[in-house]
Task: inverse folding
């Protein structure tokens, strides 16, 4: 059954993906890849001349060897890999990395070892995920008052469990 716009019942299946150009900033780089057809993030891979050991409680900048040209009005978000966090306590030092639409440099990932043992990052290891999302341009405007809401100023656990 077709809708009024001529799209079949699952328009998303026929949508063309946004092209995002990837430049190899290092000849040893590996193309970011989506692990499955429905993956939200493309795996970013370490691009290293030699192994890097991250000791408990420390962090290290791991280069990926790739740069990206994001689509207009989008943002690249770099997230940690859940398997590294669960198995080894490895997470992003800044929680989530932000790649602005106009940044063209190599993507670096700051990993933090929250685990109890040294962790070795090797060349070719999947270290993070890149998710490209829409960015909504906003204009920040100073205001003396904000709209009232039921929650108001309650934060940090104010809504209960």
Result:
């Amino acid at each position: 059954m077709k809708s009024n716009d001529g799209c079949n019942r699952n328009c998303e299946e026929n949508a063309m993906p946004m092209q995002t150009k990837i430049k190899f900033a290092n000849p040893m780089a590996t193309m970011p890849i989506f692990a499955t057809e429905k993956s939200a993030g493309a795996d970013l891979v370490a691009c290293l001349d030699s192994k890097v050991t991250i000791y408990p409680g420390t962090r290290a900048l791991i280069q990926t060897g790739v740069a990206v040209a994001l689509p207009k009005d989008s943002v690249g978000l770099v997230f940690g890999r859940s398997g590294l966090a669960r198995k080894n306590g490895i997470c992003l030092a800044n929680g989530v990395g932000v790649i602005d639409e106009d940044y063209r440099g190599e993507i670096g990932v700051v990993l933090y070892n929250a685990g109890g043992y040294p962790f070795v990052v090797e060349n070719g290891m999947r270290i993070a995920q890149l998710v490209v999302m829409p960015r909504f341009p906003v204009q920040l405007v100073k205001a003396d008052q904000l709209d009232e809401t039921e929650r108001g100023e309650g934060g940090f656990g104010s809504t209960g469990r």
Remarks:
- The longest strand covers residues 126-134.
